[in-house]
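Progress narrative, work stream C.
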Amino acid sequence: MNTCDFQGRIAVTPEVAETKIALSRTLNS
């Protein structure tokens, strides 16, 4: 999975949103 492409997409479902937030926190750490 392309991380950049994933981050560029808007979260549609709560599950995706939660995963996206988790990824963002990991990358920002």
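Work stream C, second folded protein:
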Amino acid sequence: MSRNHKDKYESSNPRRTHTIMSTEDANSGKKSYWPELEITGSIRNLSPNIWQLTHLTALYLNDNSLQRIPSEIGRLVNLKVLDLSSNKLRSLPAELGDLIHLRELLLNQNFLRVLPYELGKLFQLQVLGLHGNPLSKEMMALYGEPSGTHKLLSYMLDNLQDIVVVALATAVECALALEIYDGLA
């Protein structure tokens, strides 16, 4: 085997072909830098080390048995593609909204009833896969319209802003109540 030879792994998806470091390169101490990572095959738990791979631009965790995605996913700020399709997810962490470079988010065939409003911050998102989830009729109606992804994300951003306004108003009311209480004491 020559020094420049690389082993190829052919993915089940013809769009993706991954080059894996040769044995010689690994033995010589060469570091790997994989822009994409694919983990499939009925996996139930993920190693916490995955969330340290901040260089990843694509993460394929589809066709597993994942029931939750930890908030640490928000560390993968360079992701452009995230595929969580065909898992057993019932909810998603709000930190997905921190992945502002995402262009493709595939959530098809899960058990999602709601989506975090923080997804409204994903301004670069072009593809959103939601089919096969028991989402509300309101969300699915928006999603099903022409430019549905954009409309749904705008709806979510509006609701996120409403939540922030309510939280700020509540904080101000609490601060005023404390001032009044301190003034009476």
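The CA atoms of residues 100 and 143 lie 20 Å apart. No further action is required on this item.
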